[in-house]
Amino acid sequence: MNLATLTSDLSHRFNTLTRTVQQTFSFIRRRQPLSDRPIRGVILTTGQLEERARTLAAEHTVVMQPGKARALLASVDRNHRLLRLAYQTLAADAAQRQPLTPAAAWLVDNYHVVVSQIREIRQDLPGGYYHELPKLKGGPHDGKPRVYALALELIEHTDGRIDLEQLTRFVLAYEAGRRSRSVRFGQSRSCCVSG
Predict the structure, then answer these.
(1) pLDDT tens digits along 109-127
(2) In whole angstroms, how far apart are CA 178 and each of 59, 61, 169?
(3) Fewest CB within 10 angstroms: 16, 68, 97, 182, which?
(4) Paired residues of 136 in beta bridges
(5) What is the pLDDT of residues 160-189, one digit of tens each?
(6) Per residue in 3-17, is it b (16+ CB within 10 Å) or e — as a string?
(7) Between vectors from CA 46 to CA 41 and to CA 52, what angle results, nearest 5°?
């Protein structure tokens, strides 16, 4: 096969895949909620992540209110469909011995793990448990569980490469930020009461 034929074939396959994705996932053209957009941000060091966690703790208003797990589960379903389409396309390319990027090869090799995790999310997030999670009030994650917003923040600023030490330090810094906020609020309240 010569270069011109190969280029033409790849261009045709790319255009076909693009049309298929656009038709299958037409909802993507609508404005997506923040949580459904690609999760990309400036990569932060562990120290910067800790500072970010303290900042978030100061910004977050947390409420205990019932919420609907349906919105998050719908997002999981949409992402599952996108991943399945990507997997099918990449697996077909691999079967034809087309070169794959390392990330694409990882998805082809580990798709069964991804599906297992999605199944586990659906089974382990019963509505009752979801209702018990503290939710955020206001901001881009209004009404969503605080832990969801924190997970997105970590993923965004680590390019999805999270290790146990980073996670631990991030959560501890967030909790420290919450405690200092509580102390400040408590002190200001006690000043008003005692004055």
Answers:
(1) 999 999 999 998 888 777 6
(2) 10, 10, 14
(3) 97
(4) 62
(5) 888 899 999 999 999 999 887 654 443 333
(6) eeeeeeeeeeeeeee
(7) 60
> Which tokens go with 94?
């691999």
Residue type, 42: V
- Which range of 31-40, 42-51, 74-83 scores highest in mean pLDDT? It is 42-51
How far apart are alpha carbons 99 and 93 in whole angstroms? 8
Query: Letter for the amino acid at 147?
Result: V
Residue in the structure block whose two tokens are 């503290």: 134
Q: Residue 81's closest CA among 36, 41, 141? A: 36
Q: What share of the chain in percent tops pLDDT 70?
A: 72
Q: Do 76 and 193 form a contact (C-beta atoms < 8 A)?
A: no
Q: Which of 120, 125, 145, 143 is nearest to 134 (CA)?
A: 145
